[in-house]
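Predict structure. Chain length: 450.
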Amino acid sequence: MVDVNQLVDVAGGVQSKRVFWDQEVYEQELDRVFGRCWLFLTHESLIPNAGDFVTAYMGEDKVLVVRQRDGSIKAFLNSCTHRGNQVCHADSGNAKAFTCSYHGWSFGMDGALAALPLEQSAYYGKFDKAEWGLRPVAKVDSYRGFVFGCFDPQAPSLPDYLGEMGWYLDTWMDGTGGAELVGPPMKSILRCNWKVPSENFIGDGYHVGWTHAAAIKVLGGPLSGLAGNAEIPFDDAGLQVTSRHGHGFGVIWDGVGLIHNDPAYRIYAAEKQPEVAAKLGDWRAKLYMGHWNAGIFPNCSYLYGTNTFKIWNPRGPNEIEVWTWTLVEKAMSPELKREVVKQAIHSFGTAGTLESDDGENMETCTWSNRGPQTRRGRMNSQMGQVNDTEHPELPGIIGKNFIGETSYRGFYRFWAELMEAKDWAAVRANDATWKEPLIKGAAKAQGRAA
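Prediction complete.
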């Protein structure tokens, strides 16, 4: 059992380097993080018809996600109940049944065992098929068309799990009639721990002007001025948010479409902003025109305004399989959707300009901790901690600029809580006090500054 108190100091804004390498930590994560949290599976637009399916991962478990005849969506472990062979090897498709290639056991789209060869002659007609269907994922639900699954029947509902983050997600998921993903996903392998890209996407505005200095100069546009970490107007450039269950984001005000210098997209967003304001109010209209680096805990990340959507599927403590879709709004014209897809692939596709920059850092952040002496060290995430506070109108804990590590601290606060908690009941017991260590950390930071 890992002593989480030795790994994360929430109020201090410090983490142990073991969190990026250790096998024991990873095994506990599979049980207590990936075994408990809601994990992204697919978008409803990618499985619109009865029998449509995709295969996905929940942690390291392969799952089969299927649209049912009644329009609902179910998910099952992609493992035959006879001898454990993978039942479906296709990434996606449409099927009335799924038949194991090893011995021919056949399962309906509802997961029930429908038929098996030699049932009468080999099993003498005594086999109870009702007992041997595919194991279902305990909970499957959709939020604004984005489909998630959860193995833990005691977990909160999906809306409750998203919590305050749902208020923010509605900005682009619901503000103009909904969003969808363009697939199938691009897939690649990175030799890094899953938390490195998760923390990068959830709150790292600090690296943009340095890691991507050459790339943003080439891409052009207003954000090219960040190259070299040039000074910016910190107090009004954006903000960061962290929420109850570790979700969060940073936003650059008026940054939508700027990384690509994409005027057609910016014109579209500007025309839609009044619609968002009328439906959701001024704050979310302002957020709608921003550029977000964001995460849904634990391993779902996206950039709204650059419009890439990713899952970091863990493959051990030092490798992940990256799945990348493009995020578009349903109301966009086909021409604009194609342009958004092209630009998203150009920047954050498998061979994207910015993706390549990030990949090298993410791998090095992981493998540099292979050495036992290095793993005894600590990592610092105190940037902007002095400003973490509650806001009179915005949910969650707010950091007052997009360059800061408020979202990092919130991510590891919840990670540590899950790793230590016996079950969801123990997590719920902290609902009323979850902000306290972050506020305490801000007070400590103010003391250090003084």
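Summary: The longest strand covers residues 179-190.
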